[in-house]
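Marked as duplicate of an earlier ticket. Keeping the data here for the record.
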Amino acid sequence: MKLSVHGPDPGQPASAAAPPEPHANLSAPPRLLLVSQCAAGAGHVGEVVLADILRARGAGKIHCVSLRAPARAEADLSAEAMTVLSRFDEPLRAAAQGRMRWLADFAAAAQQHAARAPLCAELAQIASQQQSQVLLLVMNSPAMIQVAARLAQQTNLPLLLLVWDDVAQVAQQFGLGRFSSWLLRRQFARALGAAAAVAVVSETMAADYRAQYGAHTLFLRHGRSRAARQSARTEAQEILIGFAGAMHGRRAFNSLVAALDSVDWHFEGLPVRLRITSPSLRVSSSAHARLEYLGWGDEQRSFELLQEADIAYLPHPFEAHLRPVARYSFPTKLSSYLAACLPVLAHAPADSSVASFFHDHPVGACCDSLEPPAVLAALKAVWTNRERFREQAELVHEQVLGPRQFEQQIGKLIAAAGVPT
């Protein structure tokens, strides 16, 4: 797939673009300009979500601008629907160290601020050329957060935001120092204040953003197509626990291994096997662990392997430095678990996004402790009620986390801009 690279060199001054002329046919679906750090593609979950947004809107109704080319392109996405502004991309950096780190941080913040004007002008020019009527910015990098409100003001277009991770997590991920992080939080608040609506991924994020910023929040969570439900084995020879995706909750995972070690990897009279499909894995066991690590290859094959499990395992961070992730981020692997119609053993802090979701949608048991007895009690609750939780998983996928709901949520989000859909 060929991607266009747009616009003049950022070293040359770019003139501000005039707001686009409204379409003559006001009953037509509004043209959307989607702006994100990452591109639509098939390389990682962010790319996949954006690709599905493009498919849901359809050809001619949306244009995607990113600062990075996709890690893996999707052949069915039109090159004309995407622009890559790679010269504005900013790599992750390590936070400054030493006694003068505040000065380095201040200099980095000033450099970032100077780079935003040409980026904003470039985006405004694209919005004008595409005759865009609505802006949708994905707040997945400092650049996106810093240009959101300015771009809306410059183009005079309704602003919609999509937030996957809280601003504190974005600042940490990009290695921002104390001053840069403080400034980014102010710019984040300004963007939310300027937005007609903010799409969020978790109940905790929705509640906190309404309280802190007065934001009008809507859910936009990715949904995977459901697989044919597999019948539970009538005479199980083992308990197969499946995990698929990136491992963010390492303390939770280590706690599960310790709990299984304490019962010599046997539970309810059956051996337990833990199957993991993930890009990386670090594990330490004091017993004869029955652990099957398959790496991370073809996504469809990983999903097929997941379907063979009796229970899906969903660890969420207990680490203090990952508190923003635990409280606000929503693991997209849960959508895959429910699409596979699996009961879920969740392992997450009591105030986390996962615990909140399980409170409203009991598709399994959620353990909020790292102590092995508590983990085993939660495992027993899932195992003994697995058929009921399977039915609940199927229902929640149908009503909450399926592809149909994803498309409906996109429509609701765009409708919040006040432009005909």
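See parent ticket for discussion. The two ends are 29 Å apart (CA to CA).
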